[in-house]
Amino acid sequence: MLVSGTGTNLRALLDAAGAPDYPARVAVVISNRRSAGALDIARAHGVPAIALPVGDFGGSLEARDAAIRDALLAAEVRLVVCAGYDRVLTAPVLDAFPDAILNVHPSLLPAFAGGMHAVEDALAFGAKVSGCTVQLLEPGEPDGGPVVLQAAVPVEEDDDAESLRMRIHQQEWRILPEAVALFCSGRLRREGRRVRILPAETPARSSAQ
Prior knowledge:
9 strands; alpha/beta; single chain; 36% helix; 3-stranded parallel β-sheet; Rossmann fold
C-alpha cells in the first residue's frame, strides 16, 4: 500500500482484512514521507512500514519508484493500493503492476481529477454532489484510469472543506476495501475503458472447479 498521510484508508483496509473471510491482507506499507502517520498505523498492526523519500535518491522519481517496485515485489505484493499517495507513479511501478494498481480519489471522476485539492475544487465550483472513486491506475493522465467503484456524497449548503472531506472519507473507507476484495476474489474484469464486476460464484460452482 502506498500512502502519504495519516492513514485513515489504511486503517479501514486493515480493519476489513481482520475478518476471517476477507480475501486480502496488507503485506507492506510504503510512504514518500517519513512523517506519514500511516507508517505508525502499519507498525502498530505488525505490517512492515518503509519510508522512501525522493531526496534519498538524488531527487530522481524513477530511481525512487524503482526502489518502491523492488520493495513491493520483495513483499510478494499482487495488488498495489494508492490511498492518499500524493505523487504520480512512474514507469518502474506502473510497468511492474499492469492493471493491478488501485487508486482512491476524493471526487466522482472524471470531475476534479489530477490534483490533491479535489474537495476544495468541488466547493469552489459550486458542485451539488461530490464523492469518491476507486479506479485502476494506468500511465497517462493522472486519475484517468477506468473506474472500479464510486460513491456519491451530497454537498450541503453549510459545508466547508473539512466537513465535506470527512463525509467523503466515510465512503472511501467503505468502497476501497470492497474494491480490494473484488480484485482479490477475481471478480474484476477490464474491458477497454470499463471495469466489469463479475458475479460471486456459488459454493456449488466453486467446489466443482
